[in-house]
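Notes, p. 3: input format for complexes.
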Amino acid sequence: MSRRDHLAQLREAAPVILPSLLLCDFANLEREVERLLAAGVKALHLDVMDGIFVPNISYGMPIVAAFRKLTDLPLDVHLMIEKPQDYIRQFHEAGADVMTIHAEAVDDVASILREIKSLGAGAGVAINPDTPLETIVDALPEADLALMMSVNAGFGGQKFNPVALDKIREVRRLAPDLLIEIDGGVNLDTIGRCTEAGADLLVVGSAIFGKPDYVTAVRELNSAAAAAS
Ligand code: DX5
Ligand code: ZN
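Output follows (229 residues plus D-xylitol-5-phosphate):
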């Protein structure tokens, strides 16, 4: 299956919960992947941070490559980095199926989305809560996915900012077929509002990894998401 075919599958399965592995146990990635597979997750969300675009550093290509070795699940790589265009080829070679760049980090969103697609990967564009949707409207026709951040990119465990919900409704109106993702503070209390607004992909960090049992956490999140979609 081509990497972009994964997008079509995710669209079919929407709403889909994507665990963000920022807060996982990095001392035992294999076990974490097994636990997530047992919980029935359909894709993994990997957060790359460079300490420049965001005031935090997470991991880069070697960890993406490690997940690639451990699973065939689609890898959705969220690039919170300056100059993402300089690294997309390496992340793709490491195993990224979808790469999402931040509009705030680049001058020409559309051309980088085209580059990502030319590699055969899915191309996403993200905006932080303070960035107006207008910034990316012209680039949306080049995007496979639009990520509306509901926290400022950089850290897990922050409070949900509902500004993302209005943007999701507007993106849905402007681009009915685009995959829409939301990321930050998505938990049992907020997930229903996300699917109700039209989000297809729901990134969840602490509301999974802060729980002792991923199977229960994902099941409860799934039913709250489906009930409102
Ligand atoms: C934040 C990351 C998120 C983060 C989500 O910048 O993009 O993916 O891990 O974590 P929670 O769900 O705890 O807000
Ligand atoms: Zn993320």
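The two ends are 28 Å apart (CA to CA).
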